[in-house]
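A note from the maintainers: we've had questions about how concatenated examples are separated. There is no special marker in the raw files; a new sequence line simply starts the next protein. For clarity in this README we add a label.
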Amino acid sequence: MMCLKIEYKALFCFFYDINYTQIMNKYSIVTATCFCHLVLLSTSMQTYADNDDFLTPVTSSYYRIGQLLENLTNNTNSISICYNYNCQTQRTISISQENIQSIKKIFKQFNSTQNGERRAISHAIASLENIAATQTPVYNDKARNYNDKGLPGRMDCIDSTVNTTQYLGFINQLGLLNQHTLLKPVYRSPYLMGQHWSAQIKDNNDGQHYAVDSWQTNNGHPPVIQDVESWTTREDNNAL
C-alpha cells in the first residue's frame, strides 16, 4: 500500500511540479522510492501500449460488472447488452428464431472436442455481435480503445466483458455449452496497475480456465480465447 501512495505522490509531482524530495522525506523511504518510480514508469508504458484501465480500482470494476450482470437479463428471444464505455447505455436486442438456428448451425460445423467447442463459441459470439450491430450502434466499436473514442456504440473492456458474458449465457441457455462452463469474469493487472477484464469459461474435461476477450477485436469478429495464465501475462501464445 505504501508503494501505491508513493506512486501517486510521484505522479502528482510530475504533473504539478511539486518538490518531490520534500514528499519523500515525509515518507522517509528512499529505496522504495526508486523501486516505485520504476514500477510507475513501466506501468505507464504498458498502459499506453494497450490501453488497459490505469487508475480505476479493481474492486470498483468488480462490483460494477457484478451489478450489471445481475440487472441485465436474457430470455429465449432477447439479450441485454451495454456500450458507450462503462456500460453507460443499456439496450435489449431481439434474437429471432432464424438467428437461433444460425447459432446452432455454427456449433454443428465444428467438432465436439473441447477445442472445437471453443472455436464454435468464438464464431457464435461474433454472430451475436453482428446481430446487435443491426439494432444498436455497436458496429462502431473497434478493437481495444484506439479508434472508436467519441463514437456511439464504443466499448471498453467493461462493456465487452459484460456483453460477452451475456452472449455466453444465451448460448448456454440454448444448450450448446457441453464442454465448458460459464464462470464469473476474470481480470488481469500484471503491472500492479493497468487492469483489464474479460469473460471467462472453464473446460469441463481438464478444468482449464479460458478468457474470452472480445475487447481485443472489432465488433463482429471472433473474440480471442486464451488460457487465463497466458492472457494474464499478455502472452500471445495459445490464443484462438
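[label: protein 2]
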Amino acid sequence: MHRYSLKRAALLLLATALPMAPALAQTASPTTATTNMAAGTLDADASAALDRMGAHLRSLSSFRLTVNASTEEVYANGQKLQFLQRTTYTMGGPTSLRVKIETDSQSREVFYNGTTFTIVAPRVGKYIQLPATGTVSEILTRAYEDWGVDFPVQDLFRWGGASATAERPKEGFKVGSAKIGDAMTDHYAFRQTGVDWQIWIDQGDKPLPRKMVITNLEDAAQPQYVAYFTWDVTPNIAPGTFDFKPAATDKRIDLSDFAAAKK
C-alpha cells in the first residue's frame, strides 16, 4: 500500500517523456557505415568508447548539464509531430542533485540534498517530499524502481558503473567524426532490443557526450528522440541550490490521500 501511494504521487507530479534537430555533416562515407552495420557485431572500440564516456561522467564531482531535446509522437493518421523539452541537471557532489524539466505544457523540479527527495510542480504550486539518503546514483535507481520516476538521459551518468540499468548494445560501430558547435566529436551508432541509437562523444581525454539520437524500432513510423548536451563542468553553485523552500502558497501532497484512495 505504501509503495503504491508513493509511486502514484510521484507519477502525478513528474511525468517525463523522452521528448529533431538539423542533421550534422559527417566525415564517414555511407558505404563504410552500411558495411559495418551489415556485419551485425559490436565493435570493441565502439564499446570501449561508451565505457570511457561513462567512467569520465562518473568522475565529475560537480557539473551543470542542459539537455535540449525533441521527441516525435505518432498520431493515428501516421503523421509525426515534434515536441520540445529542456532538462537542466545540476550536481554538486555525490549526494546533491537538482533537476529542472520544462516542456511545452509542463514544468517539474527535483531537489535532492542527501536527506530529502522533493518533486515540485511549480505551475500548480504542489510538491511531494520524501525522506531519502544515498548517493545520486542510488537515488536515481530508487526513484525509478520505487517511485516510478525516470529522468531523461540519466542512463548516461551511470553507464558502465555498478548502478547501471541500461542494456548494453548488441551491435555498434564508429560512423566517423563531426563538429558540434566548437567541439570535435566521434560519432557512433548502436543497436539493441527495439532501439537504434547514435551518440556523438568529444574527442580527447574528456569524452563528454554532445548529441544523442534514439529511434524506436517497435513503432512502424520509427519516431525519434534527439538531444543536444551543453556542459559546464566547473559550475558556480549557489548555497541552498539543492534545498527546496516552498512558497507560502505551495501545497504539500499528503501521501495518505493516495493510500486512502486505494483502500
